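can u pls check wat happens w/ beta-L-arabinofuranose
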Amino acid sequence: MNIFQYKAKVLTLSFIICHLSFSPIGAQNPFVQTWCTSDPAPMVHDGRMYVYTGHDEDNADFFWMQEWRVYSTTDMVNWTDHGSPLALESFSWADDRAWASQTIERDGKFYWYICAHSKISNGMAIGVAVSDSPTGPFKDAIGKPLFENGSWDHIDPTVLIDDDGQAWLMWGNPQCYYLKLNRDMISYSGELGRLDMTEEAFGGPMMSKREKGKKYKDSYVEGPWLRKVDSSKFKVESSKVYQLLYAAGGVPEHISYSTAPHPTGPWTYAGEIMPLCDTKSFTNHCGVADYKGHSYFFYHTGKLPKGGGFGRSIAVEEFKYNADGSFPTIMPTDEGVKPIATFNPYQKVQAETMAFSRGVKTEQNDEIGVYVTEIHNGDYIKLQNVKFDGNTPKQFTARAASGLRGGQIEVRLDSLGGQLVARLEVPGTGGWEKWQTLSAPLQLPRGGEKEASPRGGMEGAATHDLYFAFTGRKGPKLFNFDWWQIEGEQKSLVVEDGGTGPYPAIMKEEPTLEAHTVFVPEDLSAFSEKNRLPVLVWGNGACTNSPWEHFKFLNEIASHGYIVLATGYIPMEEKPYQGPMSTTEQQIQSIDWAIAQNADPNSPYYNNIDVKNICVAGMSCGGLQSLYNCADPRIKTMMICNSGLFKNSNRAQAVGGMPMPDKSKLKDIHTPIIYILGGKEDIAYENGMDDFQLINHVPACAANYPVGHGGTYRQPHGGEFTVVAIGWLDWQLKGDKQAAKMFQGKDCLLSKREGWTIEKNKKMK
Ligand code: FUB
């Protein structure tokens, strides 16, 4: 059998295997349908999966690629299109071929390594763009190529930051090159390195070095992806700890990999990962990422209806590494991956978030960012695994614009022809960017928001696939679509994208806890009997009956794995609450509720709340409420913010309605306590510091940050006060030793943190 017969046999076999695995039902791959996307490079950051891609032009006859794009998800099926924050125009030296790329985070900055044709050298060049955000805006970090020498080899950069902090950049076709990046990630040290492209290393030498008539196992072509096996999780031999995945075998390409004890080699061929299949693309290009306990393999195919070799589309498969960290065989499927979280419709959702779509495209402008366009009669958008969470939906709201006659958005359940639950009429709005916010009533079928509980009760947690079916006159474009939201009987809001912690949080009402606002990780699946949510009970400044001043701070804390029960009504906007003051009793109601929910088999919080680890806290008047409640034996720690008990000498300054225990109340404190104050400018400084000085029977400390009485609660994610609050809670309620270092010892980390001072009593070392 010669090499061509061999290839033909492999291809036939692969076609059979691949076709057997195809199923049109519930197809999820390719997972972006609005544009042709290629060369996926995944990156996990702050609880989100991002994928950086190329963009194949529609109907292209070569890789005439102009820009790169970004998509992200938290459930692996509903992807948000972040548009194109980087294009050839971002690089003054580039004029063609916006080819494969990869992005990595270091020290809070995002570095996007790309390749493009350089008008300086007339070859391909490696460039680097930088941003403060994973979704941009990105700009050329150095104003020139990072590496070029006139060769066309310089494509497809991959980047890895090793455990010792050394960052490695690798790329190339057909030679694989490497450079050691400096700590700044935008310059390098040492000479250009070349991997030995041998038969041992890659299953065969590069094409130009092959012996005529000799059969080789494989060969490296392009698209390297460098990674390191986590030796704490896998029994990996030290000689195989680095893995280089790559497009292999010539045209058409499959994916293979090699292993090495060091990024520079020696590399040893390890076999195929994704064999040749009829994916309708003669290239393949992979990236790998672990996310929320799952492992994902990204690649591309040509499987969009008008796709092909120059019209590729990114796809993803879930897989499990072998026990030694090596790869199993991964086959391309149409089904793709399963959702790993539910989708919350009770928030403003960008219309360009979708699990699947037909017909529509996305565009972006400076005013509103990315939106959905090219909507015609018969087109649709699908969202998967949408959870109604026991909150009866009442209204569907969407923002749309039409320069013609508009059309309708039909909201349907579970299939394109499924139950119609809302029908929104979109009128002509006088322009394609003249946006109007429109609403229509939404009604789920009886019980459609609820699901029978296996335990006999009602869990109130039905999930549905949601279809937006677009209707209107046949032929013309109907309207543009910016965002949508479902409003329910209970209010809820995603604040600051869920916060920056590992568990994106939601702010919501709970029907069983009246006049309170709950901040909690939206996806409770990470929590269980063994990993429960400690509780923060919160009272507000001015004893107002709404946490409108503190919701960013509280939401951020929740995103770090807490359930926060704040006194008062949910603030749907940052506007002072006007109703009557709250009461001290509301904090006790919070504690009672947490304990009851944790014990109730019909509660979504059943066995998820760590009722032995409760902090009672509050700001200003809310701090006085907390001190009033300090004797409650269920409290494990206290956090008094911009507050302290009034002295007899200054009681007259107190506002009517404030709880006014006298200083003897401090004796009832039975837990460690922190005062977080705004320095001498804080009107509560004198009272708080006086409390601190009087407390010598329990560990106590007073931390000051010179911002005055208002604290930093209203800054993004609650600012500096959140950092200290999370440190205290992680130490006190989670027993986190690293967090303890913020407060313990003479040179505790807080004493070194810019702007902060800390004083501790004798009980607290
Ligand atoms: O996308 C253009 C080129 O095709 C990439 O740089 C290669 O990896 C191949 O996928």
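The pocket of beta-L-arabinofuranose is lined by residues 38-39, 54, 63, 99-100, 155-156, 222-223, 247, 283, 285 (CB under 6 Å).
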